Amino acid sequence: MDIHFGFSYIGLVFLLMLMIPNIIWSKNKPKDYDKYVKNENKVLLLFERIGEILVTCLSLIFDDFNISKISSWTIILLSAFILMILYEVYWIGYFKSNKTMKDMYSSLLGIPVAGATLPVIAFLLLSIYGKNLFLFISVIILGIGHIGIHLNLKKKLYKLQIISMKIFIKNKTASLHI
After folding, report:
1. How many domains are there within the chain?
2. Which pLDDT does position 130 carry in this prediction?
3. What is the dihedral angle through the alpha carbons of 141, 48, 115, 91, rounded to the nearest 10 degrees?
4. What is 39-70 written as a DSSP string?
5. Does a structural domain hold residue 2?
6. Whose CA is closest to 30, among 144, 169, 160?
7. So what's the pLDDT on residue 72?
8. Helices and strands, number each (H, E), in the chain
9. Partners of 62 in the beta sheet?
10. For a Cys-Cys bond, which of 33, 46, 80, 170 suits 122, CB 3.0-4.6 Å?
11. Positive or negative torsion for Cα 11, 69, 127, 134
């Protein structure tokens, strides 16, 4: 593994594409968001936080992610960038929506929990492009935590929707018998 320390402008661009929508989101959270996240899995949360720190730092300090020449490897970088563009599309859809929990954990083009999955896969591809095992492992750690948390919250949301539907049906059925 031949890695090179130095500033990565590509890493910076990816991180800006990741962080700007999240900063905007912090002022546009879904209704009842805090109610859902207060019981997040602590192990997944630890993985997510460690992964966030590592991915942020490593994306910036290795210049292996910068474009040095156009080659077949460039397709991997281009694929990662396309995934980050799709991540921006996901956020545009969320910001234009009613900003519900369902909107937050929606899919995009069949990609489940797109808000978590797209950037994780993009950074994984970036690590492959840069041939950087440190970033690769860090993205795996991040993905376990971040995607895991999102899937758990989506599952919790789904269960609450089922319970709400059952209560609604029960009330409708009871009102028909009166």
Report:
1. 1
2. 96
3. -130
4. T--HHHHHHHHHHHHHHHHHHHHBGGGS--S-
5. no
6. 160
7. 93
8. 7, 0
9. 5
10. 80
11. negative
- Phi, psi at 62, each rounded to 5°: -115, 120
**Considering the domain boundaries, does residue 3 fall inside one?**
no
Whether 174 shows a pLDDT value over 70: the answer reads no
Helix axes 9-25, 42-61, angle to 10 degrees: 140
Please give the single-letter amino acid code of residue 141. Answer: I
What is the amino acid identity at position 50? I
Strands (E), 1-142: none
Domain membership of residue 81 as a residue range: 9-176
8-43 burial, b for 16+ CB within 10 Å, e for fewer?
A: bebbeebbebbeebeeebeeeebeebeebeeebeee
CB atoms within 10 A of CB 3: 16
Which of the two residues, 9 and 161, has the higher pLDDT score?
9
Tokens representing 147 are: 């995607």
User: How many Cβ atoms sit within 10 Å of the Cβ of residue 56?
Assistant: 16
Q: Tens digit of pLDDT for each residue in 92-119?
A: 999 999 999 889 999 999 999 999 999 9
pTM score above 0.90: no
Q: Is residue 144 part of a domain?
A: yes
3 state DSSP class of 46: helix
